[in-house]
């Protein structure tokens, strides 16, 4: 018979056998789990019938000859490494060094390391990029409300931790580094937002003398090169879609192409409904109505779910209304008939090709809200169906470029403008004459990269002309004195340039098929920004406060 | 004749020729320097006799056919890219994007990028390391007086910016990542210290199941692999020296082996001098006397230099005295005879083999101070001689491992101890019995890597036994409650481990033969921590102060 123990290291585990007549049996009996040992022995085939097919090393074992205890573990660890799901996340974060021993975390961190290395190889060895480190202690950007500040020994003066190397990478282009990249640490103080971290990592890229198409092609080559070979492969070029089409077909600027149902524009049909249109005071030229049909699913639309969907629509998209219908039996459409009239309802059903068993979601009202309601239900109802065991999404990795975003969005107050992305984005060359005349119609040379419904990157061709940049700052009411160094730099001989940033925490999370970005980060913080292992953040000493010329308030 | 212009990009420059009858001549006449253009033309050999041998592309030129101005530069730039030395460093930092266009900066940043990439390749592809990103927002370390603090939205609670990933890398070993590295951003608030930056970069490495020799060998392989091929080559293994021998032979823990003069211990000779020893109250068992002879150099020891050296010795090493002699003529040694007696002086001259034309420095008093005085003069006087055109140092890159440092140093107050490096260093196994009995005699398993007189890295085998770590914390009077998570982690099954960190700013500076680390950093700050381009640090808004629950004082 004998005793056995399982020896684990970073690369796997193997069974060690001690025969009963071996004096080492006694030592083994008293060893706590997780004790660090060194063994000497002979690798042998396991006896016939005792192989373990679930174990990579299940056909062999080690016959123990000598054993050295290198560091004994305490017998009562907070959780066992063999039962992954039993420890809550908070406990796994408090004892992160134990959680890192789980095979999943080992795999995630190694996959992340390998993908990042492949990216560097592609950029440096294949494309002649220069890896340049830029500062994280910098000056706050105007209106940068989410920036951490760092007091200094200069009384009353603070650094800000950069949200991205945006200014530095443009300055590098102006400085003649024509192909820059950096795997950059960035900081954003977002309070408690789901699945965000106060510090995060992005692959930051900028190139001179490049256009949108060139940049997109470069990123596709990069992802193809660094794609983990164990995942299902990807094809380049990726599909492109305009922002308007994305909203029209998916009700989202981050479409998940794995879901086989598109949303449909039924605005013209609904406009025929005098029962609806006469009763309501919709703005005619921004009115829209959209629908999505999810086949063979009406049994899942239970009442609690319906009311949850209704609440979501009311809260997040108050400009439009939602109707939810289970298509079953003859009178399934009675509510629709009452709302829209019999004719209009029949036309809708015909156009959407509605069948017994389907679930039908219809939204109408402010076009943008109407699009997003059914766009969101397209995804959320799919999640519900998949949680019940139905397979809807393919297991492919479907990338998509979203282009032609509006350059400006309406500002917080009337008649003001905001940047849809940031104030350095180059306007679309075809829309230059609209900048003064009809700015909200101007498209920007911005591009987002979406993977399976998540935005994993975004970038743009930048403004390189100082007069145009000045004009855009003015239109956005940005204090130019704060950005004088950039304007001066643009006037010093700035090449045309553009770039992109990929969010590596999010991308790695998708590649690892992990639940949360916290599962692809070695030492993550909680949603409240706490490190549960050390307790950070913590109070500091009065000497430190004095050195930095600060006092705390509201404590 | 025609007109010409020089076209420059990130990779070099080339001459463009326009014949006088070409209508483009007019355009060229009015183009300010540094304007960004795109040209079309034909590459031709320059006419015989007009080749420029100083220019890489000096044998060819482009005959211009078309020219497009992509971005015109302002005619009055703060300095010209063609006259590197004319702009002071402050101006080059203010207009950093212009300074980056100089060929030296282009070369430095590209060399840095290439060396770092080679390091990554070696570690990941050759040695199976895992690149793990660790947080920079963390908890202050006990007594970490030089840590920047970051206020949070939790009233009165602060992160600290890490000085190094020390705790995280040990926790990664405990978490089963057995070979970790990271090119890590670190932060240290040192006020204005020469050639330091508030943020800096280190190659951070940690390995499990490794001893000192294994780690040293790994680093030697790494440097050999990543060494720039254009520099004179290096040989491994590097020399080793103990801390005691380094002080004895070079009077420094960072010996510059390119200087061919060693210091010499003349303690026993000096102790024969009753004229000296009877008059003074030196502590007999810590008394030491050292000398260094610099051949053929006495003419350079002018009086102003002598008094500068005397001031340095008095200020920095007050425990010992310095005598400086120019060996010339017969009575050169009269001061020595008066000080030490005729016999002793003759013995010294014989032992040191002093010759006409030499310069002789002798120090005596507290041994450590005496060593360091002549150790420092060995380097500084060499600098003086080299500034006068004498070639003393070889152009080799001479690495040296310094080992066997004392684990403890005397603390700030009597009978207290401090860590020579840090409290996680493993004591030398041969000195374990001295820990309680005679702690200042205990050597640590620490190693420093020195290149040409600069410390470029340091590391150690760490303590993995929680009881020993507790004992060391107690001896150092460190608050264990602050380090509880590490002690718990050591008790959870921690492998024996060790690591190292290489300072990449310093190393790259030596590889680039640059004057300052600021010349190998894209956007450096001044010694006062200022970014001269943006003006950071700057005041922040009252909204921001409120959000972070702070007030400024002393403003």
TrEMBL record, chains A, B:
Supply one GO BP term.
Answer: aspartyl-tRNA aminoacylation
Q: What is this protein called?
A: Aspartate--tRNA ligase, mitochondrial isoform X2
Q: Which GO terms describe its cellular component?
A: mitochondrion
Q: What keywords does the record list, in alphabetical order?
A: Aminoacyl-tRNA synthetase, ATP-binding, Ligase, Nucleotide-binding, Protein biosynthesis
| Family, per entry | Belongs to the class-II aminoacyl-tRNA synthetase family. Type 1 subfamily.
One Pfam family per UniProt: tRNA_anti-codon
Q: Name the Gene Ontology molecular function terms of this record.
A: aspartate-tRNA ligase activity; ATP binding; nucleic acid binding
Q: HAMAP family from the entry?
A: Asp_tRNA_synth_type1
Which superkingdom? Eukaryota
Q: Where is the Aminoacyl-transfer RNA synthetases class-II family profile domain?
A: 109-537
User: Which gene underlies this protein?
Assistant: LOC107272319
Q: Which InterPro entries match?
A: Aa-tRNA-synt_II, aa-tRNA-synth_II, aa-tRNA-synth_II/BPL/LPL, Asp-tRNA-ligase_1, Asp-tRNA-ligase_1_N, Asp/Asn-tRNA-synth_IIb, AspRS_core, GAD-like_sf
């Amino acid at each position: 018979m004998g005793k056995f123990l399982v020896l684990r290291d970073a690369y796997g585990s193997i069974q060690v056998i001690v025969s009963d007549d071996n004096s080492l049996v006694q030592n083994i009996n008293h060893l706590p789990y997780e004790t660090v040992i060194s063994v000497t022995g002979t690798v042998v085939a396991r006896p016939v019938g005792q192989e373990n097919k679930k174990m990579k090393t299940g056909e062999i074992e080690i016959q123990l000859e000598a054993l050295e205890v290198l560091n004994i573990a305490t017998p009562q660890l907070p959780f066992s490494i063999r039962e992954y799901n039993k420890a809550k996340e908070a406990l796994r974060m408090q004892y992160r060094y134990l959680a890192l021993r789980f095979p999943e975390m080992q795999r995630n961190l190694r996959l992340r390391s390998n993908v990042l290395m492949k990216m560097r190889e592609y950029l440096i060895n294949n494309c002649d990029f220069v890896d340049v480190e830029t500062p994280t202690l910098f000056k706050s950007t105007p209106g940068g409300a989410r920036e951490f500040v760092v007091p200094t020994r200069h009384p009353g003066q603070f650094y800000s931790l950069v949200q991205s190397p945006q200014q530095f990478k443009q300055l590098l282009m102006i400085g003649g580094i024509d192909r820059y990249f950096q795997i950059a640490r960035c900081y954003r103080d977002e309070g408690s937002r789901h699945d965000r971290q106060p510090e995060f990592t992005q692959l930051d890229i900028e190139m001179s003398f490049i256009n949108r198409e060139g940049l997109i092609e470069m990123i596709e080559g990069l992802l193809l090169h660094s794609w983990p070979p164990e995942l299902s492969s990807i094809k380049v070029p990726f599909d492109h879609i305009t922002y308007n089409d994305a909203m029209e077909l998916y009700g989202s600027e981050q479409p998940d192409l794995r879901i086989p149902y598109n949303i449909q524009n039924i605005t013209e049909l609904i406009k025929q409904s005098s029962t609806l249109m006469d009763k309501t005071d919709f703005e005619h030229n921004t009115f829209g109505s959209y629908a999505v049909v999810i086949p063979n699913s009406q049994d899942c639309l239970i009442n609690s779910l319906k009311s949850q969907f209704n609440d979501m629509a009311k809260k997040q998209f108050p400009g439009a209304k939602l109707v939810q219908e289970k298509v079953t039996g003859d009178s399934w459409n009675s509510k629709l008939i009452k709302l829209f009239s019999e004719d209009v309802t029949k036309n809708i059903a015909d156009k959407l090709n509605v069948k017994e068993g389907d679930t039908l979601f219809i939204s109408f009202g402010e076009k943008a809200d109407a699009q997003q309601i059914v766009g969101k239900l397209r995804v959320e109802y799919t999640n519900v169906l998949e949680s019940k065991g139905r397979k809807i999404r393919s297991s492919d990795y479907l990338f998509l470029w979203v282009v032609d975003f509006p350059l400006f969005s309406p500002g917080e107050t009337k008649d003001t403008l905001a940047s849809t992305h940031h104030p350095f984005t180059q306007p679309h060359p075809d829309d230059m004459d609209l900048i003064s005349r009809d700015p909200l119609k101007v498209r920007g040379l911005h591009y987002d990269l979406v993977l399976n419904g998540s935005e994993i990157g975004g970038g743009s061709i930048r403004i390189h002309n100082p007069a145009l940049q000045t004009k855009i700052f003015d239109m956005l009411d940005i204090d130019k004195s704060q950005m004088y160094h950039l304007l001066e730099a643009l006037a010093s001989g700035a090449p045309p340039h553009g770039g992109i940033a990929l969010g590596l925490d999010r991308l790695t999370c998708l590649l690892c098929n992990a639940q949360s970005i916290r599962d692809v980060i070695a030492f993550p913080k909680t949603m409240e920004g706490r490190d549960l292992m050390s307790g950070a953040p913590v109070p500091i000493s009065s000497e430190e406060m004095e050195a930095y010329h600060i006092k705390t308030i509201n404590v």
